[in-house]
Amino acid sequence: MVGEGVMAMDKALKEPQVVITDVHKSFGTVQVLKGVSMSVRKSEVVCIIGPSGSGKSTLLRCINALVPIDKGSIKVDGIEVNDPKLDELALRRRVGIVFQSYNLFPHRTALQNIMMAPVHVLRQDKAEVEARARKLLAKVRLSEKADSYPGELSGGQQQRVAIARSLCMMPDVMMFDEVTAALDPETVKEVLNTIRELAAEGMTCILVTHEMGFAREVADTVHFTDHGRIVESGDAKAFFTSASDPRTREFLTQVL
Amino acid sequence: MESIQAWFRRLYDETGINLTIFYDPWDGLKYLKGIGLTIELAVLSVLLSLVVGVVGAWLQGVRFAPLRWLVYGYIQFFRNTPPLAQLYFFYFGLGALVPTTTNAFGLAEPILNNFQWAVIALSFFAGAFNVEIFRSGIEAVPHTTVEAARALGYSRLKSYIHIVLPLAIRICLPSLNNNLVNLVKTTAIAYAIAVPEALYVANQLWSDNLNVPEMMNVVLVTYLTLVGLFVFGVSRIERALHVPGYTPS
């Protein structure tokens, strides 16, 4: 019995949730992604690192179809993103994204920000959504800020509300696009703690980050991108100490 | 009431300042009706011009290019011609083309009267500015905010209703306020097609009583009061829409 349980867990862990195959994307004449492939298993924490302009943020936006891809395939829970008849809502309720600039809705309170999408888009019961939203606010340790407007919150607080807002859609995958880049060092910690907890709970996470220490600590897998390609991938523990590609090593010596 | 009338009659007797509207009930009622019509004209034109503004701003974003050109042409025409000329264009130009009906006395009567033409002309005049004002508000909503809404599963229409418009209105309220104040004042040009609003009635009264300077002052004070009330109302709305910690750019 015990063995079976482990087997089932193992299978769940190995089951790829996001499969990206040979994705190309150009903006005008600029080729941003030149054949990117990777896969993300359930509950895996994947960090994408690399210099600015290497296509990391674009890749995240391709995964939830904010940016249409030119060529290749992206599958999330079996949903093909590059399908003209794509059900955008079905995709986007599975994939949450948190942005560098928080992008909360400034005319609504923290609690309302979290509740809006499930009520407006998923047409869920308001009382139910509110109960869930309050739990999420407690989870990001901002219960007392429920009725504050985004303009009254610090950057770190806004970012945690943004994380709670994405979580309230009950996604299977969470994507973080340089979510600490606009924060001061102290508030970075609050946000990273929240992500660390999520990862520990088994949420599938895809992070674009410049926080190398954090990547080393929470990630299972690290991908290094440069000029629209994945240059090197590997197990997080080994990646930072024994990267083999010269370009990766050059980048790492500069940021570590 | 009696004493007020007596006071204004005595004012006339002793100083020659003749404010008939305050002691002659017939004149008073006539002027009140004029103010009433000015208010009616202002309220209807403000509402209709807002509709023109929202629809026009939306049409500016559609894919079908001829519709966009139409809106562009409309804005150019109404922004760059005098409102009085526009009013004449509607009333005498288009008014001559619309079909007529036969009234109870067997006379031909246009289906739109001068008041209705004034509402239409004023709404299109102010609406042209409102289109540009709304568009500037919509464009000022950060692209990233809209992107966040899309990522949360909002359709274009839903993000428009719940996020873009509520923010755009807050952003463009000051310029909208300006334009609508202008519109309230511009209702006075309905005088030119004999709509019996405040200015027109005042003209009739001063012709009867030869109290031109007095009525001129009354007219100015009337508009000052009306616009003052309007601005007060808009600032109440502005305060109600205020969001703590958020200053629309």
UniProtKB/TrEMBL annotation, chain B:
One of its GO terms (biological process) is amino acid transport. The keyword Repeat does not apply. It is found in: Cell inner membrane; Cell membrane. Its main location: membrane. It comes from the Bacteria. The chain crosses the membrane at residues 35-59, 88-108, 215-234. One of its GO terms (cellular component) is ATP-binding cassette (ABC) transporter complex. Pfam families: BPD_transp_1 (PF00528). Belongs to the binding-protein-dependent transport system permease family. HisMQ subfamily. This is Amino acid ABC transporter permease. It comes from Vineibacter terrae.
